[in-house]
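Collaboration report, partner site 2.

Our partner group contributed sequences for two proteins of shared interest, and the home lab folded both. The records are reproduced in the order in which they were received, starting with the first partner submission.
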Amino acid sequence: MTLAALAGRPADRAIGKPVDLDLSGAWLVDPGAGREGPADLVIEAGQIRSVTWLNGHDAAGIDDRGIVVAPGFIDLHAHLREPGGTAAETIASGLAAAAHGGFTTVCAMPNTTPPVDRGAMVSAASVAAERSGSPVRLLQLGALTAGRAGEQLAALGELAAAGVVGFSDDGSPVQDAALFRNALLYAGMLGLLVVDHPEDLRLTAGAEANEGLVATVLGLRGWPAAAETEAVARDLALLADVVRDEPRARLHLTHLSTAGALAQVRAAKAAGLPVTCDLTPHHLALTDEWLAGARRWAWEALDGDGAPRDPWRDHALVAAPYDAALRVNPPLRSAADARACLEALVDGTADAIATDHAPHAQVDKAVEFGVARPGIAGIETALGLLLGAVDAGLVPLRRVIEALTIGPARILGRGGPADERAAITGGAVADLVVFDRSAGWTVGAGTLLTRGFGHPLEGRELAGEVLLTVAAGRLAFEAPAAG
């Protein structure tokens, strides 16, 4: 079934215009209400007029394998490259790609050129978002240190006054423990979170790929898991020290990728520390064996006992090795680490899924693996990768939707800039995504809206075609009509 069959396609429906929509017999997932099931949904002039849950005969034949409606997704971690890298992405193209992926709120990281370390740059990003015409909401993180140089704190108060939702030196993690402690303390006083990219740079100098069998066979310099676990241990120790003086201090650890780091966060939460974390879709679904040419999902790379399967013995290497599109930071890990990420998503250790959307220009990706810039332009393929794990029976659909909606909203803060968008209730302004789980789509230059060059999933069919994205009551994306 298509969206056209459900609601028609008014000829005047255009990006940025208020939406009228009558969806009958869709599967509604509302994590805010803790409920999912068959429902009818009516939207008039961008406002949700009614939500009717269906029962009995009215619900017959409706399940979560067809048309699904959910709150618009919230991405805590995206790189939009403006200013300084507009060949790879602009705010306009990034917001368009986000809408195609079902995202209605995007948190932009500050590692632009120059970095977002002054209030005027926050205002410039807001102006660019407004000029784009996209209704997708842009939220900005500010740099943690001046120029992201790790030597002195940025103008955190000025950035807070300009409206940032947190602070981060993502990509250039602060190595000075005393400086990072001060950052946690000061950000806590401002009521904002610190987002850290946990990496001990002393252990990753020159590293190219996850330390292990694949890196050894391919002759790539290994990136040890200890680089992440050591950094997480330091961050948690500093947080425990700071909260005694400033209980409002909050730490968010982004794109965790190892079983050891996730175990540390699980223990810290049990001890009551105010720490949250997110996972990326590519660290859930892909593994380092993709660098050697494998193209099976992470859950297919383990045997029935949970032991890793050898891609060479399994004849799983079907593509050329050293695909630079697969170089990411942190690197793709082992199948065991990917399984630990899935387990952390299911048990709630991981609070959210964030894409770490990191597009690059051709000059930075169409090069030798070891010199390629790290990053995957993943905001449009996130849902498809996650639905692969749902289809494999590894995580419930509702948990995935939670991690894309109320999980990020809670990290940003209850009553904060994204909180009201994470539920579907009558009388609210519509902020939602409609996708068809029964329909697949093929990743490629003709189907992606990002400017980023190359994609490791190019040519691959993913489940879950996004049919419609509505942000703040206005049309953000609509799939082209078939036929």
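Second partner submission, folded after the first:
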Amino acid sequence: MGLRLTILGSGTSHGIPMIACRCEVCRSSDPRDRRTRTSALLEYDGLGVLIDTAPELRLQCVACGVTRVDAVLLTHAHADHVVGLDDVRRFNDLLGCELPVYGAADTLARVREMFRYAFEDDPSYPSAKPQLRAEPITGLFEIGGRLVTPLPYWHGPARVLGFRIGDIAYCPDCSAIPDETWPLLAGLDVLVLDALRRRPHPTHFNLEQALAAAARIGARRTLLTHIAHELGHAATSAALPPGVELAYDGLVCEAG
């Protein structure tokens, strides 16, 4: 069985439409311009691997028909990527077991501070809660017999992780790719890559930088994500080169 990728959310930390904004994109009737915060689901061999837990995770899972999550991968601990973590408790109930949460040591330390109750076995806790097991990433690892390759890169001054499983790589919140990571991105069917807006930004690729990185990587298909309200879906897509497209909430693709 191949890999199935669902883009659960494709928006920047504000989400689109942004609060109290009347710009053309925030008022757009195109459903592809309605962007929840960035997260994704990889499915293979009957398993579901969730990448990041956006604030709208419950709504994303309902909208995309997600019924199974066996593990969580965290790229970093910024709020727009982790504050939906409590919602994975539903998958604890469905599977009847705890869920492993994989991340860099500093990411897991921060998440454990934010969601201490979810990592503790406390029978006296007065409500339903997630049952999570922290799994620090120190190199290559496996989930369900598939190799997971951590992809270190820079998000401004912070060193964060993307992930590659099979021929799919997921790299949001990226401003620079170090020399050691470029070879890990070779031979991709699908690349999901940060592209915030047209103007430069100190912690994200802008559209020009993302297109340059995509051309160097040469994936068969590149999906741009973590998109701000400065990039309308239809107008931006019309000007993109072949093989590159804007992601949108609910987009599904498959790879070997």
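Feedback sent to the partner group on the second submission included the following. The domain at 3-245 is CATH 3.60.15.10 (Metallo-beta-lactamase; Chain A). Helices lie at 57-64, 79-82, 89-95, 105-114, 207-217, 233-238.
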